[in-house]
Amino acid sequence: MKQEEILQELSKLQSVYGIGAKMYLEDSKLGHQFLCECYDSILEDKEAMQKHFGSQLFQEITAFGEEHCQK
């Protein structure tokens, strides 16, 4: 899944992640940073974030983060 597609899926959530994704859909540089922050949240608490994002979106964000976010 591409960055914009992940942000579109995130924007459907009724949470700060959904609101943030809506704001960052228009700016690809900021959208990239936002997804890296989502990835950081996953690293902090995988179980809670998987419940919040759902399995598919969790996997997409994790794959994006592993490929595009420095740690």
From the structure above, extract its key features.
mainly alpha
Strand content: under 5%
Largest sheet: none
Helix run count: 5
Silhouette: globular
Number of domains: 1
Concise overview:
With 71 residues, the chain is an all-alpha fold. Helix content is 79%, strand content 0%.
Would you write up a description of this structure?
By secondary structure, the protein is mostly helical. The chain has one domain (about 5-70). It contains five helices and no strands. It has helices at about 5-10, 15-25, 30-45, 45-55, 55-70. The longest helix has 17 residues, at about 30-45. The protein is globular. The relative contact order is 0.19. The mean pLDDT is about 95.
Please describe the topology of this protein:
Blueprint (H helix, E strand, L loop, with lengths): L2 H8 L5 H9 L3 H17 L1 H8 L1 H14 L3
